[in-house]
Amino acid sequence: MTWGLKRLLILLMIVATPLWAVEPDEILDDPVLEKRARIISKNLRCLVCRNESIDESNAGIAKDLRVLVRERLVAGDSNTDVVEFVVDRYGEYVLLKPQTGGSNIVLWAAGPVMLILGLGLSGGYLRRRSKRAERKVEALSDEEKARLQEILKD
Fold it and tell me: Which CATH architecture best describes the domain 3-94?
């Protein structure tokens, strides 16, 4: 493959990346509304593809969500209204960046709380262990030594 052909392929890939999965029939005529739709779509999760936005996903439900977002924008909803509508319909899982308030605060705080609790418990265990006096092991009596020798002979 020649260097010129490689450059052409790289250029085509760079030019094509902003399009992602949005199909031509979905794009709005108004560039301002389309830009708003893209901003909203990049922050909504595809329910099939897990950690991919609906703007990047080719899944059928992602296309339905992109169309829904554009319909709501054309109807006159604000960006916040559109996101709230989608969240009310599909739950907070649809947000790529979940909110940190409400019941989610428990999930956000659980990791650091568990880490601090684990460090505290392990520190306490190690401190108690180091303070404990070493148990002295007594040597075997002559009777025990004889018994051990009998067992080892068998």
Answer: Orthogonal Bundle (1.10)
HEC sequence for the chain: CCHHHHHHHHHHHHHHHHHCCCCCCCCCCCHHHHHHHHHHHHCEECCCCCCCECCCCCCHHHHHHHHHHHHHHHCCCCHHHHHHHHHHHHCHHHECCCCCCCCHHHHHHHHHHHHHHHHHHHHHHHHHHHHCCCCCCCCCCHHHHHHHHHHHHC
Distance CA 69, CA 62 (A): 10
| Closest among 63, 57, 50, 55 to 93, alpha carbons compared | 50
154 residues of the chain, pLDDT tens digit each = 677 777 877 776 666 544 456 766 677 778 888 899 999 999 999 988 878 888 888 888 888 999 999 999 999 889 999 999 999 998 888 988 877 777 778 888 899 999 999 999 999 999 988 887 777 778 889 999 999 999 998 7
Token pair 């030594």 is at which residue? 145
Q: Is-above-0.85 flag for pTM?
A: no
Domain boundaries, the chain: 3-94
